[in-house]
Specification:
It is built from ten helices and 14 strands. The protein is globular, with a radius of gyration of 19 Å. It has a seven-stranded parallel β-sheet, sandwiched between helices. With about 325 residues, it is of the alpha/beta class. Strand 5, helix 5 and strand 6 (about 160-170) form a beta-alpha-beta unit. It has a domain at about 5-170 and about 225-250: NAD(P)-binding Rossmann-like Domain (Rossmann fold, 3-Layer(aba) Sandwich). Helix content is about 40%, strand content about 15%. The longest helix has 22 residues, at about 85-105. Helix 4 (about 85-105) packs parallel to helix 5 (about 140-160) and helix 6 (about 190-200) packs across helix 10 (about 310-325). The structure holds nicotinamide-adenine-dinucleotide.
């Protein structure tokens, strides 16, 4: 039986497809390519080009393929846009997930691995963030993910669908082969933006706030390598297959925070480029520090990050961006 990777043409989904194929799993991708890239899906993997909001098509696909497990990465992911257009986020992140779950009910699929986020916690009372802390999201994006997590408990009771929610901190880096990487439009993540400056595609990198109560005044975030993230999904699947976990949620981060300035400095070393930085106003809703504890994932899933240091994250990201200055676009350095 196959594994269905929903959102498998996107950044994290495509790396997880690669990790599943490396283990000899039979994989199918469902993606509407609204944000993802056909070129990120290997030619050997069937791509079902379906919008999850097309309920009839989603139900039909799940009924036809009856996947053993579903990995669900598809979502709208821009926090700022979720504030200005919450309806889009509740539809695409929550209603779409219900369509997928209902399709699983029809097709008899019982294992579900979900991309959740540290945004479900909002502003945590202390650090590092542990799974038992209050979930009080401060934006619609975080709320839509929390709604999904809450629905899983009810789908387990009613339909026996067992789920694992993985609450990621900041996904970063690229596949060490240089064949897969991050390509978002618009790009909002710090590391690709910094590397776009090194490539001459941007003049400078903006630092939003340099007067936070942190050692160098800039915000601190917990970066997790994309390959380690993909590995955690496989461990989640194994946990469900072995009946060891269900209706579980795990943080995935490195338990170490890096400030915006530290990331820029490391990028300067890795790229050899001066990367000019411009300090500007704080952005609304940016907590000064977000660092998670992944102790539970280590203990229960046996997760051991292999690329835990910022250098590996930046080196792999730089390899991808240098070799693919236009991402998955046609005119890459390699093929253009
Ligand atoms: N990137 C991060 O740092 C981060 C952090 C925390 C959580 N997450 C979560 O991880 C998941 C993956 O993030 P990503 O960075 O890979 O995003 P991405 O945009 O690169 O990938 C999402 C994929 O889902 C597809 N998609 C979106 N809506 C769809 C729909 N209605 N029907 C079918 N396909 C649809 C897109 O085309 C895209 O290929 C998201 O759920 C996101 O909320 C990401």
């Amino acid at each position: 039986m196959s594994i269905l990777v929903v959102g498998g043409a996107g950044y994290i989904g495509s790396h997880t497809v690669r990790a599943l194929l490396d283990r000899g799993e039979d994989v199918l991708v469902l993606d509407d390519l609204s944000e993802g890239h056909r070129a990120a899906v290997p030619a050997s993997v069937p791509l079902l080009e379906i919008d999850l909001l097309d309920r009839a098509a989603t139900l039909a696909a799940l009924s036809e393929h009856k996947p053993e497990a579903v990995f669900h990465f598809a979502a709208s992911c821009y926090v700022g846009e979720s504030v200005t257009d919450p309806g889009k986020y509740f539809r695409n992140n929550f209603v779409a997930t219900l369509n997928l779950l209902d399709g699983m009910v029809q097709g008899g699929s019982k294992r579900f691995i979900f991309s959740s986020t540290c945004a479900t916690y909002g502003e945590p009372p202390s650090l590092p963030i542990t799974e038992d802390m209050p979930k009080e999201p401060v934006n619609p994006y975080g709320r839509t993910k929390l709604f999904c997590e809450q629905a899983f408990a009810d789908y387990e009771v009613a339909h026996g669908i067992q789920s694992v929610s993985l609450r990621y901190f900041n996904a970063a880096g690229a596949h060490p082969s240089g064949e897969l990487g991050e390509d978002h439009e618009p790009e909002t993540h710090l590391i690709p933006l910094v590397l776009q400056v090194a490539l001459g595609q941007r003049e400078d990198i903006k630092i939003f706030g340099s007067d936070y109560d942190t050692p160098d005044g800039t915000c601190i975030r917990d970066y997790i390598h994309i390959v380690d993230l993909a590995e955690a999904h496989i461990l989640g699947l194994e946990g469900l297959r072995g009946g060891r976990i269900s209706r579980a949620a795990f943080n995935l981060g490195n338990e170490e925070g890096h400030s915006v300035r530290q990331v820029i400095d490391m990028a300067r070393k890795v790229t050899g480029h001066a990367i000019p930085a411009v300090e500007t106003e704080r952005r609304a809703g940016d907590p000064p520090r977000l660092v998670g504890s992944s102790a539970l994932a280590r203990e229960v899933l046996g997760w051991k990050p292999r690329y835990g240091d910022l250098l590996s994250i930046l080196e792999t990201a730089w390899k991808w961006h240098r070799e693919h200055p236009r991402g998955y676009g046609e005119n890459t350095a390699k093929n253009g």
